[in-house]
Design goal:
This protein has ten helices and eight strands. The protein has 240 residues and is of the alpha/beta class.
Amino acid sequence: MASESALQTSSASYPSRVRMLTSPDGTRLWAESSGDASKPPIVFIHGLSCTALGWDKQFADPDLQRNFHIVRYEMRGHGRSGKPVEEEDYASARIAEDFKTVCDAFGLVRPFMVGWSLGGCIAVDVVTAYGADYISGIVYVGGSILALRYHPPCKHPLMDELWPIISSLTSDDMSTGAEAFVDSCVKQPLPFDVKLLWMGGFIMQPRAARYWSIRRTQDHTVWEATARRVPVLIVQGRED
């Protein structure tokens, strides 16, 4: 289900359409599309405790708008989307249904997925639920999370220090954790206004949503058995 909340213009040629969608379990999903709907579709998925604002530069890129149908959405538990707090709300099937809900709403067929950090592992849920042919390819950006099972051995050592802070229940730790987490996402300091936007996205997320987003159960076997059929690009900078 979808309701159109606004029509925003990102450029004279390519309007940006914002929609609030409803996943099959009733969770609301914020999503936005832009670019040329006749061109290959790309779905951009943000990382843990972030929002779709992380893709603002991509959505302002005239080359991307001209050559692709670009879509971004905020995962359940994040940003402007619904924030359920129970473990079952973050089951792999629910995550896959969210992606399909976005694709159906914007008429996307076999889209490319671009996942930043945690956003990359959503491909595992999608392929498990709908098969490898549901997508055209995957771009992993700035993170080791090809699947959730790979996170513990591959994560940056900084996460061992950050996790107790960012999963804290106290308000003092939450503000400290928000700033530390946002700072950890980039090598060079963000502009102050952008940093505040990202910190706001972190702080508005319930602790349980953060916990289950990364600690949920995910079956990687179907993905690993079929991954060779899916074109993959891994973008990992020296300073990521």
